[in-house]
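Go through this fold for my students:
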Amino acid sequence: MNRELGLQLIEKVKIVAIVRGVEEQHIEGLADALVSGGVPIMEVTLNTPGALGMIERLQARFGEQMYIGAGTVVDVDDAQKALDAGASYLVTPNTDEQVIRYAVERGAPIFPGAMTPTEVVKAWKAGATAVKIFPGASLGIGYIKELMGPLNHIPLMAVGGVNEDNIAEFMKIGCYGVGIGGSLVNLKEIAAGNFGWVRDKAARLVERSRG
């Protein structure tokens, strides 16, 4: 999926599934479940064993229907390896202007993590597609809403602490999107082969996100 279509998908669905710690044998079943549940956007974190190989496999099978990126990209070396493996976009846990500029040079959307207003602005000026507020669970929805006052020209994503009960609130305050990990990509259910659980959870999140 090309950049334009991928970004349109994020703007429409607004939910990115964060895949961390999933075994390679389950990755395609997980992808099927997410697509069936209405969440065709996923990032495979690079601290997941076999992440680069998983990205390659996912692109080969699901590249036309899913927007597949790499997460936990902490330096330029990570960024290069992820893009070379076929990642369509990058997500970082921190604000590293060198990594952001590298992604821009490669024509890849990048969603860097930031905590403070200073980091948010630095990330945006360096070329971020949107800025991920992290750790969202600790900072809370009120913090993100406050940032949107003076920084309303910068699209912000919430990662951490987003669930069925509060996803509508994040949408209501105007988040560009949300990243959801363990509460959607549940390792216990996936290890048991219960992909229907993931599909149903994804569907509920999509429904709740639309109020």
Q: What stands out?
A: The beta strands are 15-19, 41-45, 67-71, 90-91, 110-111, 113-114, 131-133, 156-159, 177-180. The mean pLDDT is 97. The longest strand covers residues 15-19.
